[in-house]
Fold this protein.
Amino acid sequence: MPGPHHIAMTVNGTRHQRAVEPRLLLSDFLRHDLGLTGTHVGCEHGVCGACTVLLDGAAVRSCLVFAVQADGRSVDTVEGLGRNGELDPLQTAFHDAHGLQCGFCTPGILMTLVPWLEKHPSPTDTEIREAISGNLCRCTGYANIVKAVQLFAGRRNDGKAGLSP
Amino acid sequence: MTTGRYMGQSVPRLEDAKLLRGRALFVDDVQLPGMLHVAFLRSDDAHGILRSVDASAARERRGVVAVYTAADLGDYWRPGPLLVPPPPIEGLVFNAATQVPLARDKVRHGGEALAMVVAESRYAAEDALEDILVDLDPLPAVIDLETALRPGVSLVHEQFGTNLAAHVRQSKGDYAAARSRADLLVARRFRYDRGASAAIENRGVVAEWDARAEQLTVWDTTQAPIPIRNGLAAMLGLSESQVRVVAPFIGGGFGPKIMMFYPEEVLLPWAAMRLGRPLKWIEDRRENFYATTQERLQIHDAELAMTSEGRILGVQDVFLHDTGAYDPYGLTVPINSQCTLLGPYVIPNYDSEFTAVFTNTPIVTPVRGAGRQHGVFVMERLLDFAAKELGLDPVEIRRRNLIPPDAFPYDHEILFQDFRPLVYDSGNYPAALDKAVEMIGYDRFRRLDQPGLRREGRHVGIGVVCYIEGTGVGPYEGARVTVEPSGLVRVATGVGTQGQGHFTTFAQLVAEQLGVDVEKVRVVTGDTREFNWGTGTFASRGAVVAGNACHAAAQKVREKIIALAARLLDVAPERIALENGRACVRGADASIELGELARRANPLRGAVTPGTEPGLEATAYFGPDRGNAASGVHAMIVEVDAETAAVAIKRYVVVHDCGTVINPTVVEAQVQGGVAHGIGNAFYEQLIFDENGQLLNASFMDYLLPTALDVPTVEMAHIETPSPLNPLG
């Protein structure tokens, strides 16, 4: 087996250095090596979207990325949303619109939406549905997720909310 | 709608913040010092004689700590318990065969566990799986339900001399006589496919044995932590108080997480005790398709006898039920199908007979709906065919046969899955049907829209179905409510939670009684150290059974608060009102904070009055005599593309009656989620086994769950017909 690789990456603004096996998945690295267990693993073959994180600002499935591929790059996870223990506006909208039930798929949905909403200030319901169509949710039937995103977009457009990170 | 300060209010969920911040504890988030990781070797074959499992090479691999096969388990190797024995129905046949921790002499389904590897990491454990040599003589697989019972077919369980798992007949009236005087007979065959529950969180178990404290702690993605604790204690020779089972946040349940016991739940605690190190096993998605229980394959041959006026004279239904390789859950699923077929209709004569069949496929236990939808599907399709043949409107034929609102309690004269007679407690079916028809604009659609669309060459149709959901079954649940000196109120209950909003709805019930802000009520579920009497979360019974227990415990605490406050403030108890976290004297200024009362109820000096208890705390239980009949009507407009047969759902209306609604938003979200699951089953989901028992679509690439593009936003209305079977209705 090849020896460990030394990698360094910035996760939620903090720099981490570790020695990892080349086959270690980014999802396992975040969860087990860094203890950032908010990123959830649902299928490990890139379909369910629960493990979605931002890699240099773009949404990726962390189960389809090796940790070594993130060497020298920047990763954002759900733990990086909001500040000082407060929910950020998107999280708040999910709370207000009952956009989650068991909450297992939720971190992946939030991380999918964060960069997407930067580019879609006033999305239609259909656009929202397309945006999250790569995220499986078995509890909600999606309706309140769409509602939550609309609530967020409406508030932001009313100037009441800014998007983070 | 019944409303109070909190009852009937859409209180935003109290559990959300943790979940949204990624800080809620799921089983896979448990990290313990020195923890080892477990992987299972699972059979590639669906059926075969197991000659040997040689793990010697795996044991030598670097990073591997232990490997266990069936032979290594010694006396601990035992088939699991029969969870639900067969109900007392005359002439019933039931062959019990429960799952084993690791296959020993025979493999009975693809994915059955053969060996357990414990290693320093999950990666190392999975590497070692490839070192294990399995010597297996394949046998022909039993897959097809209809041929499984023929002579000469290979047997899943030789000891029975047949693949028949059960045969049950329940009837009322005289169907043969009804049939002979019918104006119309509609006979059809219906097939309902097998599907996966597909919670986005797979199963998982973490076990830790503290040798000095002699305490075993198990984190488990179970819907039933208390029965798991009790069973583990018995299996491991521990007292129940030595075992703590925690079902923390669970990423969706949908039934299979209440199977008991899965091999992993039996093996990890045992191995953790032997090895003296904590162990973790997390199911991967592929394993989930084999190792987590499934449901739904049934084949019905049903006949409906009608008068020319569209009145039901009787129904006969003969069906095959696929129980998979083992039947630990007894007959719950097919009996649900048998009972639920009757729906909200007056059916004077019913003859229902089913045969459950063992096959070389993963085990079948309840999955959301638990067999109920099969009955609904058969009955509703029969009514549609009958309406067509009689030239009646499909809504009208249903209306003519609904049980009237003044006919409750309504006895169907057969036995339900809770072993109690199938008696509906309450309902208002005509009102629900009228409401759904009005909401979807049925008459206008049939009269105006549909003919117009047809002229344009479009194929747009409307469907309306009625159903009953037998729910709120016993045996019981309990809750303890405590006012703490801080003024916070703590509620502990035994049911686990998988996203249903228990932290909020139970808090609403308690806050309503105690006159405190709902945010001041902290609910704990699914931890046997907090509450250790109860059964679990299943059959849509949490709000009914645990909810009524919370309500009853809160009422007891309320009485204690009032008695103490009246004594301290020297007024009659009738003058005490509870509001804003205080016990107040009506019409006067005097009041005491609940936290202060809690302190006064637990004095450091003086004496607690004989016959009273310290503290402001009470425990209560609720055990319903029998289940409730929730009901509803679904109506939908769909368009079919005549070339591709693709179906687009244009509108979906649900009118739902679950009795008193505690939190409308939570209820509506449950309904929306249930509809999504149904859409998946109807249009996208089917587990496909080939003739050798190989599952051909064991991934989310090939097994399609409905996405946000496939599930419309359901238009909903509630009818509230309170149930007389419990105080909350």
User: Anything to note?
Assistant: The first strand of chain B starts at residue 36 and ends at 42.
